Fold this sequence. Notes:
Elements: H1 3-32, H2 37-140, H3 142-152, H4 156-270, E1 274-277, E2 283-285, H5 294-306, H6 311-326, H7 335-340, H8 350-358, H9 363-373, E3 385-386, E4 397-399, E5 402-404
Antiparallel strand pairs: 1-2, 3-5, 4-5
Helix pairs in contact: 1-2, 1-4, 2-4, 5-6, 5-8, 5-9, 6-9
Amino acid sequence: MKKRTVQKLKRVLARASRHAAGAWLVCALAAAGTIGVRATEDIRKALEDARNRANATRSELNDARNNIDSLEAGREALQNNMNSLNDELYAVGQNLLSINDRIDDKRLEIEAMEEELKAASDLRETQYEQMKLRIQFIYERQDFVLADMLTQSSSLSEFINQGSYIEALSAYDREMLEQYKGIESQIAFQKTQLEAELQDLEGMQQEQVAEQEKFYGLISDVSENIVRYNNEISIAEVEAEAIRTLLAQQQAEVSDWEKKLQEQLKISQEARAGAWTSVDGLTFYEKNEMGISDLELLANVIYTESGNQPYEGQVGVGAVVINRMRSARFKQNTMYEVITAPGQFSVYPTFLQRSIDNGWATEACYKAARDAMSGYSTVGDCLFFCAPRLGPKENSIIIGGHCFY
């Protein structure tokens, strides 16, 4: 397996380990019995993180599938090219077979022509030898022949006719000799033509052999590329399977967090009395008279009163609410009673209700609310806040755009 693939699989396994750690956190929260606003927010955050990881892995799996589809398309194109090359190679092979057959036939024709040429040459030689013998006989036995012709002739005219016969016989011998020479020359010419045609066919044969070798080379290259694509597809499928396994783990993790959140919300919805007690015996509710948790109520008060202030100022607003719950100067001792007391917080009810309905409170406001509810204060025991121009000069704490006293 390629080094790149090994490294990628290691990264996938590492991510799977981190997700296993996230699942462990679910169990840890359950084992610790952590119930309340902070636990709910932590679970929501863990669920969101798990979903984000699953979505990222799902996108990665889609990319892996697209890569496999692309590789398979490339392999299919190469296979089509291979099929075309094989067809062309087959055509070249058939043409080469045809040329080879023609070469064999041409060689047989040449062999037959050589035999005809030899026969013609032998015939010419025989005629030439016979003509020489007759000429030799006539010249060597000229006197005898003439005497015989004279005694055999009954008249001068017959003697002259017999002389003409001898002359005609000699002319015939010469004519036949020339005729045989012509036949021999014609056969030699045809043989030369056949040899030239054979040479052309052998040239065509070499061209087809070279063409065949070229296609063998092209097919070999395409075959190697197909093997390479097969290897890459196999590797990509292994990677995709690892990603699918990781996604299944992440989806299981999401399901675990969703189940845990539903259980936590069920506990919160069923809780009508105080869910947990803070410093100095104060009680905070998961569900107050407004149908929301004290944490959400305080976070929205902080947002509507000091959403544009620095963190210390936001904690200060939350601390004022907590201090009023603790102070004997105020008869209200629950957060809902303090915030909804007539003439105390100008944002109630209109602006505050709108913020709650639309979920305007930021994470920073929630953090400031949690810190104030845990007893942290940036303004000591201050019970009021206002604009600096309206506040007293002595023993006041100015943070951002608020004066606490």
